[in-house]
Amino acid sequence: MKLASVLAVLLVLSVASLAADGPRVQFDTSHIGPRQMEDVTGRNIPRDWGRAWQTLAIAYAQNRPDLLSRYFTGFAQQKLTAGIAAQEKSGVRTRYIDHGHKLAAYFYSPDGGAIELHDTADLEIQVLDGNNLVHSERVTLRYIGLMTPAADHWEVRLLESVPSF
Amino acid sequence: MRRFLPAACLTVCLMAALALAAQELQLPPTVSAGSGFAIATSGSGSATFYLIGPSYTGRREVQLGQEIRVRPQEVRSAGRYLAILRSGGASQSGSFYVVAAKPASLSFLAHPSRIPVGQRGSVIGVAFVFDNWHNLLRRPEDVEFRLATKNAPAAAQSVRTRDGAAWILMNSGSKAGNAQFVAALDGIEQTRVIQQVASDPCHLQIRAERSPRGILVQTAPVRDCSGNPVSDGTVVTFTANGPAGLSTVDVPVKKDIAQVELNIPGPATISVASGVVMGNEVKVGGQP
C-alpha cells in the first residue's frame, strides 16, 4: 500500500515535470517572414518545441510511442513511432540527454497555419544494447522543424536533422 | 588445457579489438533516401554492426573484412544516421546524412476556402515538397501555382522553394464560382477548391410605383462591380423620406433582387444603399 502511494506520487511528479520542465530553448524571430509573429505565439513556440523534445527523449528512453501524440503529429509522429518500434524490436535503445536548443523561425505562413524552424540542438546521445552502453557522444545537430497549431498548443509536424542550414 | 582456453579466447578477442581499432568506418557524407550502399570494413573476425536513424534502429552480426550492405529500406527517412561497428569491447563509429530523393508529393495549404471576387493578394497558397518517403526536399524546386475559374483566364505563377516551402498570395478572380487552386511540380499536382463569391453590390438601381397599400420599391438585379449577381441574403437598405419623416427598412436580396412595399400614403423620396454603396433616388407622388 505504501509502495503504491510512493509510486503514485512519483508518477504525478514525473507527469508534472514533463509538463513544466522542458529543455532550455532560445528563440530568435528576427529573420521571420512573410508574416510577423504575434507575442503569444512567440512565447508558445519555444515552450512547445521544448516540451516536444522532452517528450521525444522520454518516449525513446522508455519505448513509449503513445507519449508522442501530445506534441507530434503527421509525418513526424509517424517516423518517430516507427523509430521506437524499430528500437524495441532490435533491443537497442537511444537515450537523449538534452542540453538545449537555439531555435530560429524563418517561415511563418501568411495565414498563420505553419511555422518552419531551424534548430541547433546540443545533445548527448547514448546508444544502449540491452543495458550495455555501446556508444556515447555529445553533438551539435541541426534540425528543420515544421509546427502547426492544435487546439491549445503547437505540434511538431516535421522534424529532420540536416547537415547544414 | 583449462588454463589455455580462456587465454586463447582472450587473445582472439584482443586481436579482433585491435583489428577494429585500426580501421575506419568508410561512410558517405550523404545518401539519397531509399538508396542502399556498402560500408567497407577491414580486419578479420566477427563484429556487431549498429545502424540508428530517425525511424530505423538495427543490429546485426557482420564479418570484418567484408562489406556491410545497408539496405534501401533501412535508410528511407531523411536525417542523421549513426553507424557503429563493435567487436571485443572496441568500437568504431561514424555518421552520415540521408537526404530526400526526387519530388513525389506536395502538401498544399490553401486559404481561405471562400472569398469575394476581385480581392488583391487574398488567396494564400503554401506548398511543401516531399519525396516518396515524406522527407522534405530542401533543394530549390519550382512550384507552379494556378488559380482558374471556368470561362475565365487562369492566373499562374511559379515560385521557387526555400527549405522545401513555396508560398504565394494571389488575387481572387473576377468571376464568381468555384475556382481550382492548383500547386504543381514535375507532373505532381494538388488541387484545392476556392469558392469565389460576388463582392459588394455596385450600381444599385431602384424603381418605385404606387400600389394599393403604399409604394412598391424594387431593385434591378443587384450585381457586384464585375457583374456577378450578389449572394442571396445580401442586405439592401431602403430609405423613404416623406411627410411623416424618415423611415428605413433592411431587405435581403432574394433571387438577385430586393423589394419591399412601403406603407406611405403621401409623397416620398426613396433612396437605396447596400454597405457603403449608394444607389439612385426616386420621387413618388402621394395617393390620388
Q: Main traits of this protein?
A:
heterodimer, A: 165 residues, alpha+beta, Nuclear Transport Factor 2, Chain: A, 3 helices, 38% strand, globular, B: 288 residues, mainly beta, Immunoglobulin-like, 3 domains, five-stranded mixed sheet, 1 helix
- Assigned CATH class of the largest domain in chain B: Mainly Beta
Total individual domains of chain A: 1
Helix content of chain A: 25-40%
Distance between the termini of chain A: 54 Å
The radius of gyration of chain A is: 17 Å
The CATH topology label of chain A is Nuclear Transport Factor 2, Chain: A
Order of helices and strands of chain B: HEEEEEEEEEEEEEEEEEEEEEEEE
Helical stretch count of chain B? 1
CATH architecture of chain A: Roll
Could you list the spans of chain B in which at least 5 consecutive residues all have pLDDT below 50? 12-19
Number of DSSP strand runs of chain A: 5
What structural category do the secondary elements of chain B indicate? mainly beta
